Amino acid sequence: MTALSILNDTFGYPDFRGSQAEIIDQLAGGGDALVLMPTGGGKSLCYQIPALLRPGTAIVISPLIALMQDQVAALREAGVRAACIHSGQTAMEADRAERAFTDGKLDLLYVSPERLLSPYFTHLLTKAARHGLALFAIDEAHCVSQWGHDFRPEYLKLTFLHEHYPEVPRIALTATADETTRREIIANLRLEGARTFISSFDRPNIRYRIVEKANARAQLLAFLRAEHAGEAGIVYCLSRRKVEETAAFLAASGIRALAYHAGMDSPVRERNQTTFLREDGVVMVATIAFGMGIDKPDVRFVAHLDMPKNIEGYYQETGRAGRDGLPAYAWMGYGLQDVVNQR
Fold first, then answer.
1. β-strand 301-304 against 170-174: which pairing, if any?
2. Using 50, 70 and 90 to split pLDDT, how confident is the model at 149?
3. Angle formed by the axes of helices 216-227 and 240-252, to 10°?
4. DSSP letter at 49?
5. CB 309 within 8 A of CB 338
6. pLDDT for 261-294, tens place per residue?
7. What are the phi and psi torsion angles at 75 (to 5°)?
8. CA dihedral 217, 219, 220, 224 (to 10 degrees)
9. Residue 338 vs residues 306, 309, 329, 341, 342: alpha-carbon distances, Å
10. Distance, CA of 31 to CA of 25 (rounded, Å)
11. How far is 336 from 343, CA to CA, in rounded Å?
C-alpha cells in the first residue's frame, strides 16, 4: 500500500497537489511537520493518508465539534475506521468510540484539546498506546498563538504530546499564520525539529469587495439578490443578537437563511449546520464560531456585516468561499463604528 494508492482508491483523487506528497512522506517516515496551506488546499489528507500508512491510531486534535463530525462522516463514507469523542455525544456513543480506540480498532480518532488533556483521556491514551499511536495531528494550530485570531489556552498544554510520546510524529496545520504566529506555534508545541511547509496563499478565484456602510442589511440583500440568488454562502456578524436579527431579516426577504452561534440549543445549531452542508442554496448567518474546517466546496460568497478582528481572521473566514476552485466573492460592509467596536 502506497500513499498514491490510498489517494486514488480511498479518497478518489488522481494526483497529489502542491507539497502534499512531501508532507505525507515526512510524516509517514516518522518526522514532524508544520504545514501552512490555504483553505481548500487539502490539509486533511496530509495526516489522513499517513494515518493509514502507519500502524496504530492517529489522534487528531480539533477545536470544534462541527469540524470533527464533518471529517469523521466523510472518512467513514470512504471506508476509513474513524470516530470522534466530544461533549455532544450520548454516553453510549462515547463509550463505543472509547472501546474501539483502546482495542486498536480505529485508524483516526478526533478529540478536542480539552478532552485530550483530561486525566480520563490520558488514561485511555496509555491503554491505546499498546496497539500503537500512528501520529498526532494538531489542526487549526494558530489557536496556540496569543497573537492569532482564535486563541485557545488549552493548545499551550499540548507540549504534553512531545513530553510523553516523543517517538510519535506530530503535524501542526493551519490555513494562515504570520511570522510571529509561526514562531509561537513552533515554540509552544516544541516543534523545533519539524520541517515547515508553506504553500501559496493566493486564492485567485475569490474576488474581494469592500463597501462603505449606509444601510448594511439592505446593501447585503441587494448583493445577494443581484449576484447570488439561490446560492450557498456565509454571512458573518460580530454578535449573537445580530446573527439572529440578520437571519430573520433575510428569511423575511425571501432568502433561505439560517442562524448559527454558540448560544443556540445544540440540536438546533447542529440541524442548521447539517442543512447548510447537505442542501443547496442555503445562507448561513453566523458568528466566527462557524466554518472552521467545514468542507462545503460550493460556498459562492462570504459576506461580513462587521469588520473582522484582524487580517488573519479575515483571510480564514473569506477562505471558506470557492473551495471548488470556481469563482467566489468576499463582500464586506465597513464603517468607522466597526473600529470602535473592535477596540
1. unpaired
2. low
3. 50
4. H
5. no
6. 988 988 898 899 889 988 999 999 998 767 655 6
7. -65, -45
8. 140
9. 6, 10, 21, 5, 6
10. 9
11. 11
Q: Any idea which residue has 486525566 for its cell?
A: 119
- 3 state SS of 136: strand
Per-residue pLDDT band at 251 (split at 50, 70, 90): very high
Length of the chain: 343
| CA 127 vs CA 53, 101, 221: distances in Å | 21, 9, 55
Burial of 253 (0-12, 13-18, 19+ CB in 10 A): middle
Extract the C-alpha cell encoding 322: 470557492
pTM value surpassing 0.85: no
Q: Could you read off the pLDDT of 21-62 as tens digits, one per residue? A: 999 999 999 999 999 988 777 889 999 999 999 999 999 998
Which residue do the cell numbers 460592509 mark?
333
At position 315, the amino acid (one-letter code) is Y
Of 278, 70, 58, give the one whose Cα is nearest residue 258: 278
User: What is the DSSP annotation of 272-285?
Assistant: HHHHHHHSTT-EEE
pLDDT tens, position by position, 94-144: 999 999 999 999 999 999 888 999 999 999 999 999 999 999 999 988 888
Q: How far apart are CA 95 and CA 204, in angstroms?
A: 45
For residues 156 and 92, give the distance between their C-alpha atoms in angstroms, rounded to a whole number. 31
What count of other Cβ atoms lies within 10 Å of the Cβ of residue 226? 8
Q: Are strands 33-36 and 170-174 parallel, antiparallel or unpaired?
A: parallel
β-bridge pairing 57-61 and 108-111: parallel
**Cell 500512528 maps to which residue?**
134
* DSSP per-residue codes, 10-37: TT--SS--TTHHHHHHHHHTT--EEEE-
Tell which residue, 260, 275, 250, has the closest CA to residue 64.
Answer: 260
Rounded-to-integer distance, Cα 233 and Cα 317, Å: 12
Cell numbers for 132: 500503537
C-alpha cell at 96: 463505543
84: which DSSP letter?
A: E
